[in-house]
Amino acid sequence: MHARLVRGLAAATALALSALVPVAQADDHPPVETAPGGGIVVRVHGLRSDRGSVRCKLFDSADGFPERAHVIATVRAVPSGREAVCAFAAPARGGQYAVVIHHDENDDDVFQRGIFGVPLEGYGFSNNVRPVLSAPSFAACSFRYAGGASGLDVSARY
């Protein structure tokens, strides 16, 4: 229980600011395998419900990760079958990127936290990094994007 509380506090800290980023509405029927003309498709698994929406944020810098000031794109997807798909347009250049997801079950654009900052809504990071005492690093969450179509899976944590 103590370890779960610590992980929850770390995740809440990591997502508290990024959850307030303005959102671009995704198509109600996002692609399931690859983005048209290339891009990054994030398949989010393990949602506890189909309520609300899932926000996926794409970062291209370790500087300040995962704070909202460094988000280069945000996509909002509607969950279905306890999964969601966020499709980002192809970034202008290849490089290292990282993704943060937030399952905003009540769709209020706020990352809900309980006592001691324990997350009440789902969250996740690319590479399925599990935070332990602090927000995960960009290096731990980053993946290489070289252009074209790329996909990754992220498991939601509650």
Notes on the structure:
By secondary structure, this protein is mainly β. It has one domain. Helix content is 12%, strand content 34%. It is built from two helices and nine strands. The chain has helices at residues 2-16, 138-141; strands spanning 24-25, 39-45, 53-59, 71-77, 84-89, 95-104, 122-125, 143-145, 149-155. Strands 1, 3, 4, 6, 7 and 8 form a six-stranded mixed sheet that branches. It has a three-stranded mixed sheet with strand order 5-2-9, with no helix packed on it. The longest helix has 15 residues, at 2-16.
SSE blueprint:
Blueprint (H helix, E strand, L loop, with lengths): L1 H15 L7 E2 L13 E7 L7 E7 L11 E7 L6 E6 L5 E10 L17 E4 L12 H4 L1 E3 L3 E7 L3
Parallel strand pairs: 1-4, 2-9
Antiparallel strand pairs: 2-5, 3-4, 3-6, 6-7, 6-8
Briefly summarize what is shown.
This protein has 158 residues and is mainly beta. It has two helices and nine strands, in the order H-E-E-E-E-E-E-E-H-E-E.
Class of secondary structure makeup: mainly beta
How many separate domains make up the residues?
Answer: 1
Q: N- to C-terminal separation?
A: 13 Å
Low-confidence stretches: 1-34
Q: Percent of residues in helical segments? A: 10-25%
Number of strands: 9
What is the radius of gyration? Answer: 14 Å
- What is the average of the pLDDT values? 80
What form results from the Cα inertia axes? globular
Strand residue content:
25-35%
Largest sheet: 6 strands, mixed
Number of helices: 2
